Each structure stands twice: as C-alpha cells, then as structure tokens.
Amino acid sequence: MFLSDPRFPVALAALDAANRADPRLTPEGQPMEIDHADRLTAWVLRLKPDASDLLRIAARGQHIERWTSPRTAYPEGRAGYLRWREDLKAFHARRTGEAMERAGYGPEEISRVAALITKAAHRAGDPEGVVLEDALCLVFLETLFPNLLVKTTEEKMGEILGKTWKKMSPAGRAAAQSLPFPPAAQKALAPVLLGNSGVKW
Fold this sequence. Notes:
The chain is an all-alpha fold. It is about 70% helix and about 0% strand. It has one domain (about 5-195): Hypothetical protein af1432.
C-alpha cells in the first residue's frame, strides 16, 4: 500500500500560508499568488498526472511572495528587468527551500526544487523542468496574455508570443491550442503558430 510522504502537505501548507498574505486580489477575491499557484499546479497535473511531490512543491512555490519584490524596485530597461528576474528566481527558491526545511526535507530535495524553480532543470532538458516551464507558459497564455493584448503593440506582442512558444514542448503547444482564446487573441497567435509549427488555429 502506498503511503504519502507526511512532509508534503506540511510544505504545501506553509507555501500557501505565505501566499495568502498577498494584498493583491483577483476579481473573485482570491490572493493573486494563490490563484497563480492553483493554476500552475492544475496545469502541471494535467500535463503530468503522476507529478512527483517535489515538482508539485516547485509549482506551489514558483511565485512565493512575489509581490514583495516589485519590478519598480529595479532600474528601467532590459538590464534592470533581467536582474529583477534573476533575483526573483533566487528569492523564490530560497523561500521555498526554507518551507521545505521546516517540513523536514533534506538538502538534496531542496536543491532539486531550487533547480526546478530557477529553471536550471529546464535549461538542462530535465523532463520535470520541461513540464513546469510548459505549465508556466500555459498560465501566462491563459491569464496574462489576454490583458497584454489591450496595452501592447502588435510587434511587441508578436515578439512575446514567439519567445513563449519557443520555450514550450510539443505537449505544451498542443495544450495551448486547446485553450478557448477570444478572436483577438487567436488573431495575435496565428502568425506565431504558422511560423513555428505550420498549424493554423
């Protein structure tokens, strides 16, 4: 009989408790980082129903307490943006690792989750890293992408979508094509699909 790891729910509860402090709320009244963690976890499980505990922990901690480090705290421009992104990865990995350590996880397990959160696993072609990156891209397409459409130039949007599409695996791209995008979003995505896969929406 399979027995679940008692450390797992303890770690998840700690991550969710931290993210419930997010003062930013969705239109439904949900803390934004809880909403993001829920969506990311759902996509991970949809793409990989047998996802490991460590992959699921990485999904819950991927954006832990992100609101505490706003983009505005860094210089404008690409260099400032890249520094912000790298600092965020390290921050999220550290905070998730702290929650894991309190739950009883060891250094190797914490390092594994850090590799997933910082995307080192994805860059190395690790299968779980690929799943997590696909899930992140799908959450972006599902939530942030429609909002960007109304405030981003067509050229810039094409660039963003092209970069997003290139990050995704064939399984992730197939999942993206199943999303119920509104007509405006489908129009923006059409050139990306044609340029990268030869498939029309």
